[in-house]
Amino acid sequence: MIAPIDGIIPVMLTPFDDEGRIDWEDLEALIEWYIANGSSALFAVCQSSEMASLSIEERVALARFTAKAAGGRLPVVASGHVADDPETQKAELVTMADTGIDGLVLVTNRLDPAQAGAETFRSNLEALFAALPADLPLGLYECPSPHRRLLSDDEFTFCCDSGRFAVLKDVSCDLDVLKRRLALAKGSPLAVVNANAAIAWPALQAGAPGFCGIANNYHPDLYRWLADHGARWPELAGELAAHLTLAALSEAYGYPAIAKLYHQRLGTMKSARCRVIDYDVRQRFWALDAIVDAVIQGTEGFRARIRALSREGGERLTA
After folding, report:
1. What 3-state DSSP class applies to 165?
2. Quick one: DSSP state of residue 198?
3. Are the beta carbons of 216 and 7 closer than 8 angstroms?
4. What share of the chain is helix, strand, coil (3-state, %, to 5)?
5. N or C: which end of the chain has fewer CB within 10 A?
């Protein structure tokens, strides 16, 4: 049986230089930052990576580079599942499977691109089962673009029972749906990992084995602390969860560019260039830098409080 892939899983950014080419030096620095800040696994070539704007050659190179740079220190999963046509999908995914990654993530809306229903979803999925290596763990991602295609309970159960899936990035954004899926997945290798920051803490309390949202591009270490130690310090966990929820609202202000501005401040990236944004985010979103300042200030404040707990208890609880 395959092993679940869970924990704190950043949806990776793709650094570009000012000419719009992938900046491999900055990507390596970003990978090291994710690892140093408590990540359990990495999700490369995803929506945050701007995968729909990458050529197949770039998607393959990005996955291969990430797997090599991670060097077995943590699992790397990748998607790159963007095509509409089933045969093109098969070709791109077979190619992605051969990049050294630890898991290949299928996008649910690509399995039913015309929203035809369950029969089409299952037929396309079974065709991919036949085409992809049987020993490669698979994942599922209810990507909201170009449309959010949530799994029905029957589809979810089928995926659990197949034994092929190690992780679902759950984008239901609904705690009751998440709890139901956790119950349905019991006894299977499929880890149901929540993607929504607003329910991250109650989802962890309900037994969700991690968090895989855009906010892991700001403070994966704080989500790691919440998952590992939040139950021990519920008052601080509640205050931290409120900060994390508010910080995640920055997604509405030109993401992923705002996350790249954040990493410019950290020195991880030289440029905030994006392919999916063709406007100046500072012109469209006034006082954007003040929002970044607030996220950084709040994050550093909670890190300081967690370090203080470590000193008081004489143990390592570092966020």
Report:
1. strand
2. G
3. no
4. 50, 10, 40
5. N
SS3 210: strand
- Average the pLDDT over 263-291 and give the result: 97
pLDDT of residue 1: 58
A 10 A CB-CB count for 228 gives: 15
CATH number of 7-312: 3.20.20.70
pLDDT digits (tens, 9 = 90+) for 213-266: 999 999 999 999 999 999 999 999 999 999 999 999 999 999 999 999 999 999
Q: What is the mean pLDDT of residues 84-98?
A: 97
Tell me the C-alpha distance between 211 and 215, whole Å: 9
Residue 48 burial by CB count (10 A; 0-12/13-18/19+): exposed, middle or buried?
Answer: buried
Count the neighbouring beta carbons within 10 Å of the beta carbon of residue 130. Answer: 8
Residues 194-216 pLDDT 10s:
999 999 999 999 999 999 999 99
How many Å apart are CA 164 and CA 171, to the nearest integer? 20
Distance CA 11, CA 46 (A): 7
State mean pLDDT over 86-96: 97
Q: How would you write 60-113 as a 3-class SS string?
A: HHHHHHHHHHHCCCCCEEECCCCCCCHHHHHHHHHHHHCCCCCEEEEEHHHHCC
Q: Which two tokens stand for residue 173?
A: 């954004």
Extract the tokens encoding 313: 């208890």
Q: What is the pLDDT of residues 42-62, one digit of tens each?
A: 999 999 999 999 999 999 999
Question: 3-state class of 46 per DSSP?
Answer: coil
Q: What is the mean pLDDT of residues 120-128?
A: 97
**Using CA atoms in the order 168, 169, 172, 174, what is the torsion angle rounded to 10 degrees?**
90
Do residues 209 and 21 touch, judged by C-beta distance below 8 A? no
